[in-house]
Amino acid sequence: MLAVGAALSYDNPADTSIWVLVVPMLLLAINLVAAIISNPRINRRGGLLVFHIGLLSIVLLVAIGRLTYMEGHVEIISGSELSRDLLSEVRSGPLHDGAFDDVKFVQGPYTVEYRPQMMRGLTHSYVAIPDGQGGWSEAVVGDDRPLVLEGYRFYTTFNKGFAPILSWLDEDGQVIETGAIHMPSYPLFDFKQSNSWTPQGGDEIKFWLQLETGLKVEEAWVLDGRNATGTLVVNVAGNRTELQPGQSVKMAGGSLRYERLTTWMGYKLFYDPTLQWLFMAAFITIAGLGVHFWRKISAEPLGLDNASGSKNNRAKDSVATSNSVAV
Amino acid sequence: MTELPWLYAGVTAYALAALTAMVGVGRLGAMATSPSLSVASDSQRNNERLVLSLMAAGVVLLVITLAERWMRIGHGPFVNLFELLISQLFSLGLVYTVAYWRIPVLRTTAVVVLPLMGVLAIWVLALEPSDSVFPPTYHNPWLWAHVGFGKFFLAFCLVGTGLAGVILLRGSAFFSNLFRHLPDNVILDKLAWRFMLLALVFDSLMLTAGGIWAQDAWGRYWAWDALETSSFLNWLLLGGSIHARTTYNVPLRLGAILIISVFVFAFITYFGTPFYSQAAHKGVI
Fold first, then answer.
1. Are residues A166 and A258 both part of a single domain?
2. What is the Cα–Cα distance from B170 to B162, expressed in whole angstroms?
């Protein structure tokens, strides 16, 4: 049943129910408990007992993990602090009770190395994290080095890009609101760095960002938002205006000021409180298996010294059987 | 590509080892009816030494192939099928050479094992020897553990398959006569399953190390992707086969078929998946 469930889950088809795995796992757990309790061939052999208890532990830990997990995505602007409202595509187990609201970090700049032909290399994302004494310390994460805070693991992704910071000013020039427009992932969508925003009661404002990042497809290159510049093209009802940082454009009801260009980083979020226990259980399980095999093999030599071939074997003193074998 | 001559030389050494092993086993079978046992023994000993030397030479030449390629493109053989196959030819050859050297009863299995490796060799020679790009998530020590454990897993399966192949071939009169110098099938079966037990340990280690690497690299320890699901099914088949062998009175020939099935499944998993997934773990690099 487990093999059938795994086969049905092959390559993550969207329409496969989780129950095709849950039911066989549950039956496996019941079977393991019964075998551990009732089978003397298991419960009287230390290594084999550890192996079966380990397997049971793994099944239970996986189940606990799926009940308490949390996954999601975060897009965070350089210079801003993580908050719950940045989360998207969140999935979590029914018993998830992690302390996400206690997680604090401030996104800094990042660099991404590219080889010729736009082959992505290493990512270095700089973040400020609480140092435990009321201050902040810097950490560098990226690729296979997640940021781990309160059990939540943040992984950099290929999904990152630029974001013009804009302010909406009233007729008197007072800033009403400041925010960022996330442009599509860069350099994946370098050909369509556009987005739009509709102020309350106003017309849709279309934005197009003309970037200068030093990108050269044929050469190695480092994406670093600190070295990038961008001209923001603003289009409202057919009126096109090009803005440099600090410049503004008048519109109905106020004006829009292009403050500066910054970047955003997309993180994958993962939380599973059983991770360490799971890997520890896996290694103990394998150790139990190893001990069992070692004892079994030590206790039962193959006896190749005295082994002979068929009854009519006339070449049994050949090299193949002339030496002792300890396997 | 400066590594190609070394690859051709390494593959040639393996091919010569296979031919020499076949000649040796054939001669041994013929001499089984000869009254001159001491001549037969000396001749066989020389043949086995030659096979061992050729296999060792093949391993060394493949080490040079991998080193040359590594220096040229700047990373190890972890990404595309061409380099993965060369790497497997090296590791399978290394483990089998050591086993051949240390466990004499295995030597006759060279006539089964080396042709199987020949399939890999022909495949790698038929591939476009393209370079690969090292993904950023591969800069992780658990990658080495994952791949290393996997190599031992497959190599132990290969040794078990060699023995299982001999057991099955003995079903015919021709091979029964050819392999008559070997111990009884019961002992070969026992030895084969010991290698499969070792394979299970290393398969489990490979999956665990892979989970740790995947957790660091992609933020999940398991994802049911093509390769992971196949690996898990392979682990179930291996575990189930060992369970059947230790719990029930599995006939020798059925046991041999189970061993070969595990190897074939592993072969399809690690070398078949790249047919529809260009990278070892498609979609996550």
1. yes
2. 12
Instruction: Say whether both A243 and A217 belong to one domain.
Output: yes
Q: What is the largest CA-CA distance in chain A?
A: 110
Q: Which of A 147-206 lie inside 8 A of B, CB atoms?
A: 153, 155
Range of the domain at A248: 162-262
Residues from chain B contacting residue A323 (CB–CB below 8 Å): 104
With CA atoms as reference, report the closest residue to A76 among A182, A149, A196, A177: A182
Q: Is B44 within 8 Å of A304 when comparing Cβ atoms? A: no
Tokens of B142: 């658990």
Predicted confidence (pLDDT) per residue in B50-100, tens digit: 999 999 999 999 999 999 999 999 999 998 889 999 999 999 999 999 999
Residue A279: the pLDDT is 94
| Same structural domain, A178 and A223 | yes
For the beta carbon of residue A173, count every other beta carbon within 10 angstroms: 10
Q: Does A298 lie at the interface with B, CB-CB under 8 angstroms?
A: no
> Is A316 an 8 Å CB contact of chain B?
yes
Number of domains chain A is built from:
3
**Which DSSP helix (H) or strand (E) runs through A73?**
strand A70-77
Q: How far is CA A65 from CA A32, A172, A229, A271, A275, in A?
A: 19, 55, 44, 9, 8
Asked if A252 and A283 sit in the same domain, the reply is no
Chain B interface disruption, residue of A45, A117, A318, A321, most B CBs within 10 A: A318
Residues of B in contact with A142 (CB under 8 A): 136
Q: Which of A305, A310, A312 is the mutation pick for testing B, counting most B CBs within 10 A? A: A310
Residues 6+ apart with CB under 8 A from B163: B106, B109, B188, B189, B191, B192, B195, B256, B259
pLDDT tens digits, one per residue of B107-139:
999 999 999 999 999 999 999 888 888 888 888
- C-alpha–C-alpha distance, residues A212 and B55, integer Å: 57
Q: What gap in Å lies between CA A73 and CA A75, rounded to an integer?
A: 7
* Element spanning B13, H or E: helix B4-31
| CA distance to partner chain A, nearest, from residue B279 (Å) | 14
| CA-wise closest residue to B90 among B41, B128, B124, B126 | B124
Are residues A211 and A245 both part of a single domain? yes
